[in-house]
Amino acid sequence: MIVARDQAAADAASQTLRTLGYHEDDKSMNVVRGEIGNLTAHTVIFFQPPVTPAELQRIAMAKPVQVVALTTPGEVASYLVHAMTQAGTQAGTQTGAQTRATTKEHRR
Question: What pLDDT is recorded for position 12?
Fold first, then answer.
C-alpha cells in the first residue's frame, strides 16, 4: 500500500509505479490518499514522509510489518531541522536540570 497525502501525490505515486513496471490494474500495489479505512497491508509506503503523529496512527491500524517513507533531499533536510529543533527544546530542559545538579555539586 502506498499512502499519498493529496491527489497530486497520488498521481505521482501511480506514475512512479508505472515507471517501475507495475500496470495500472495491478492489485498488488494500491495507492491510497490519507485514510486507509479497513485495509491491511504487509508493507506501507509513505509517498511523502509523515508530518504528524496522526498520520502514523492511521497507518498503524493496517498493522503493517514494514513502514517505508520515500523522501526528496529537501524533505530530509526539513525533517532534520525539525528533529534538531525538537531535540534542542528537550535538551534545553535537560540542560537546566544538569545545570542545577552541577551547581549543587559545586556547593559541596
Answer: 92
Distance CA 21, CA 68 (A): 20
CATH code, domain carrying 23 = 3.40.50
pTM tops 0.70: no
Split into its structural domains, the chain has a count of: 2
Cβ burial of 103 (10 Å; 0-12, 13-18, 19+) is exposed
pLDDT at 106 over 50: no
According to DSSP, the β-strands at 66-69 and 31-33 are unpaired
The domain in which residue 41 lies consists of 1-70
Residue in the block written with cell 534542542: 88
